[in-house]
Design goal:
The structure holds two protein chains of two kinds. Chain A has helices at about 1-30, 35, 40-60, 70-75, 80-90, 90-115, 120-145, 165-195, 200-230, 245-270, 270-295, 310-330, 345-380, 385-405, 420-425, 425-445, 445-470, 480-485, 490-510, 615-635, 635-640; strands spanning about 515-520, 525-530, 530-545, 550-560, 560-565, 570-575, 580, 585, 590-600, 605-615. By secondary structure, chain A is α+β, with helices and mostly antiparallel strands. In chain A, strands 2, 3, 4, 5, 6 and 7 form a six-stranded antiparallel sheet that branches. A four-stranded antiparallel sheet of chain A has the order 1-10-9-8. Classes of the chains: A alpha+beta, B alpha/beta.
Chain lengths: ~650, ~190
């Protein structure tokens, strides 16, 4: 019964979304205030309908309702409650419901907090969001019904893929979707601007917080996914340039470009056409990812169960929204010409360079991801593009990007003094060179890690220099504290996010110096790796809630001192008849000691041991970036001078 | 350089470029989806540079303690009496256990299956075959994993199909599940029989 109610709520939401798409758009076109006024209540009603449907789905998973086929396929009565819930969105159908729920939340936020927006703009934005929601709700109802019944019901479910039963992965999809769907809002703003034929500073002030929020969530989502791969897949790697990973990186890169170019629109009323295009592309990339993951056109460890019929439907939606918006762009963009004029060496110029480099990296990743598929379909050639291509092709673009990232915030608007900025950064440059030489001296001839540490020092140093400069710490030290408190949070946020990138580079460079060993040990035996002694104490059986495991106990010693006791496991899940490896990781923030248990033989076990210097910094860096984004969002200027107080802080 | 003025009238065709690219990509994706349905497009077949070529030259020792002849490239040069499978495996690889029943079935049906034991210990490999059965006619031992590098092996298990002329026709990275056997391998075995 609850399932049918959920299904009905989805259908109701779809109709409401359709009405939400049509009436306000007609109203905005005809300047009919009554039709435009319908936008907000419709968005609210749609949100209630979708939330009910999602609640019904969660309920079906919570009580393990085995008459729902989705529950049977993805859940099991013995699973911990958290994974029953995460099972609800860990599969294709449920994740689509989560997707439209977040979209409805965004629509509700624009409706609720956007009362100060010009009414035509608000009606159009909500209308476009309704159009997107209607398409995806139609997709769910016609091809991916999450409430499909099975009769007679089986005794119990088949269980969630055990590799997905993990706290990191439970929150990975919601974070990613918050990011992807956040770009639906900037997309809606872009299309609304094209319909109106007008982009102004107020538009920029609205787009910036949404793109910031979406980007921050996407950063966290990608970081969670990469962290999960690091500790759960047990390969000791963190990024594999897998097509599905690339699919999430693309909107992140375009979104980062959007975030920066929206600043130029807001502050200088320039780069308008470009910003509108980026807003369309950021959402386009999000949809492209959805299509690639769910249609079966690519081969990936992360892909959902494939169904070409679904692929055709998503492709139709993708083309309708993105090609539709791009056609509108080609037709209407000439009306949006910018007014701000600036010299090549200026804050604007720096942001243009940032945009060009970020978009070039995105283009390289896009081509590398899609080329094997297109080569197959065009020439019948099976090729594979892997990490060597991506590393080689993105590094030459990343180096100038890092170099410019430090300089950009030092430049003035309109016309800047490059020599002056360089002068203020001389000590940072010296620090970067020193870091590179120190790395070569300590770790031997490793070029990329040395460059990575130089980049880290350069970015973190420049962020510090920027802040010190703004608060005049050296010129007027007595007032520095007051100036620091008075400094806009957006300035702090920007500097912190840039420093976060630096921290991440330090982590990447540290991982470049990682060492590992594959050893077969008997209990009591030990081996040496990275200056530590690793001693296998014993291997024994343990029982978990829905698994049994073999657990090894490895004592890591530094001389006579016990550093830590690692307990890697090999778990067996009887329900799915699957094994997973649980790596044991000990971190002290400066390095990870990482152990994986392999097969057992002759009373001993095969262990893979890793020493990963600075590994956690990769994810610290991502969290710092997201924090910088969040801090920037809480800026007084965003809250006060933007048409609404709260929308900026509302979850995207 | 003079000041950059954002062009008042951007060239119109440039504004159509994103639309054109998106439309071309859309057409390509549509072709892929059609290909998925009629079987002409398959993203899972991991490409191999060796497709359509004979196997690279090699000669591997036999596995001690297992009564099977060793494997060398000469054993895989055409003409062969029928299609041949070459399977890279190891006792420490869990998917190899999943795949094993399918190999056993093929061997019982008379298909020539040769094994290359990858980075393994003699005792373990022998015990594995004793416990799960031996599907192999010939078995080479690639302890350092050198041959696997020459073949471009992704990881174990991985299987190559050779036609009667000794040309590599198919490569499968990952376990041959019952589904793979029926949907992919059997049609190929019929084609190259």
């Amino acid at each position: 019964m609850i399932g049918e109610l959920g299904h009905f709520a989805l259908a109701l939401g779809c109709i409401l979304a359709l009405v939400q798409a049509i009436l306000p758009l007609i109203g905005a076109h005809r300047r009919d205030a009554r039709l435009m006024a319908l936008a907000s209540p419709l968005a609210g009603a749609q949100l209630i309908a979708i939330a009910s449907a999602f609640g019904a789905l969660l309920w079906a998973f919570a009580v393990n309702d085995t008459t729902v086929s989705n529950v049977v396929l993805n859940s099991h009565s013995q699973k911990p409650l958290l994974y029953k819930f995460s099972g609800a969105w860990g599969n294709h159908e449920g994740s689509m419901v989560l997707w439209v729920l977040i979209l409805a939340l965004c629509g509700g936020a624009v409706a609720g907090f956007g009362r100060d927006l010009p009414s035509a703009l608000q009606a159009r934005v909500i209308g476009i969001l309704g159009l997107i929601a209607a398409g995806f709700l139609g997709f769910i109802i016609f091809t991916s019904n999450p409430f499909e019944r099975v009769w007679p019901p089986p005794m119990d479910g088949q269980g969630l893929n055990p590799i997905l039963q993990d706290p990191g992965l439970a929150f990975h999809p919601p974070m990613l979707y918050l990011g992807y769907v956040g770009y639906a809002v900037t997309f809606a703003f872009a299309v609304a601007a094209l319909l109106e034929g007008r982009v102004d500073a107020a538009w920029g002030r609205w787009v910036r917080p949404w793109s910031l929020a979406a980007w921050s969530f996407l950063t966290l989502g990608i970081a969670l996914g990469s962290w999960w791969a690091y500790y759960e897949l047990g390969w000791g790697g963190y990024w594999f340039w897998d097509p599905v990973e690339n699919a999430s990186l693309l909107p992140w890169l375009i979104g980062a470009a959007l975030l920066h170019s929206a600043i130029v629109v807001e502050k200088r009323e320039s780069l308008k056409i470009w910003t509108v295009l980026l807003a369309i592309l950021a959402f386009g990339m999000s949809l492209l990812g959805t299509f690639l993951v769910r249609s079966g056109v690519l081969n990936s460890v992360h892909a959902f169960a494939n169904d070409p019929a679904r692929g055709v439907f998503i492709l139709a939606l993708l083309m309708a929204y993105v090609a539709g918006a791009l056609a509108l762009f080609a037709w209407r963009a000439p009306k949006l010409g910018g007014t701000g004029i600036f010299a090549p060496i200026s804050r604007e110029g720096g942001l243009v360079l940032n945009n060009l480099l970020l978009c070039s990296i995105a283009a390289v990743v896009l081509v590398g991801t899609l080329w094997p598929m297109f080569a197959d379909i065009l020439f019948g050639a099976k090729i594979s593009v892997g990490a060597p291509f991506f590393n080689a092709a993105t590094a030459p673009l990343a180096i100038p990007l890092v170099a410019a990232m430090a300089l950009g915030p030092m430049l003035a608007w309109k016309r800047a003094d490059l020599a002056g900025a360089l002068q203020r950064l001389w000590w940072v440059g010296a620090l970067a060179v020193a870091s590179a030489f120190l790395t070569l001296l300590v770790a031997g001839y490793h070029v990329w890690p040395a460059l990575g540490f130089a980049a880290a020092a350069w970015l973190i140093g420049a962020a510090a220099a920027d802040i010190l400069d703004r608060i005049a710490a050296f010129r007027r030290p007595s007032q520095a504290w007051n100036r620091a408190r008075g400094l806009p949070r957006a300035a702090w946020g920007g500097a912190i996010a840039h420093a976060g990138v630096g921290v991440m580079f330090a982590g990447l460079a540290g991982m470049g110096l990682a060492t590992d060993a594959l050893v077969a040990l008997k209990p009591g035996e030990s081996t040496r790796l990275a200056g530590y002694e690793w001693r296998l104490e014993r291997i024994r059986d343990v029982q978990g809630p829905n698994w049994s495991a073999r657990r090894a106990t490895v004592t890591v010693l530094d001389g006579a001192r016990v550093v830590t006791v690692l307990e890697p496991e090999k778990r067996f899940f009887p329900v799915g008849r699957m094994n997973t490896t649980e790596a044991a990781i000990h971190t002290n923030a400066l390095r990870d000691l990482y152990a994986v248990l392999g097969d057992e033989r002759d009373g001993g076990g095969v262990l893979r041991l890793h020493h990963n210097p600075l590994a956690p910094w990769i994810w610290f860096g991502a969290v710092i970036m997201a924090l910088g984004g969040g801090l920037s969002l809480s800026d007084r200027r965003v809250r006060v001078s933007a048409p609404s107080r709260k929308a900026a802080t509302a979850p995207a | 350089m003079s000041d950059i003025t954002p062009p008042k009238r951007p060239r119109r065709w440039m504004l159509y470029a994103p639309l054109g690219l998106a439309a071309a990509a859309g057409a390509g994706f549509y072709a892929m989806l059609q290909g998925l349905q009629d079987g002409s497009y398959d993203p899972r077949g991991v490409p191999s540079v060796l497709l359509g070529k004979p196997v690279p030259d090699f000669s591997l020792p036999a596995l001690e303690g297992v009564d099977l002849p060793a494997l060398a490239a000469a054993d895989l040069r055409g003409p062969l009496p029928g299609p041949v499978l070459v399977n890279f495996w190891a006792s420490w690889c869990a998917p190899c256990i999943i795949e094993h029943p399918q190999l056993m079935r093929l061997a019982r049906e008379g298909i020539a299956v040769h094994g290359i034991n990858y980075k393994d210990r003699v005792m373990e490999a022998g015990a594995f075959l004793q416990r799960h059965g031996n599907p192999y006619r010939r078995l080479g031992r690639d302890e350092p994993g050198r041959i696997a590098i020459d073949w471009g092996v992704y990881g174990v298990p991985e299987t190559y199909l050779l036609d009667r002329q000794g040309m590599i026709r198919w490569r499968w990275a990952g376990p041959i599940t019952a589904d793979t056997l029926e949907k992919d391998l059997r049609p190929l075995l019929r084609r190259y029989a």
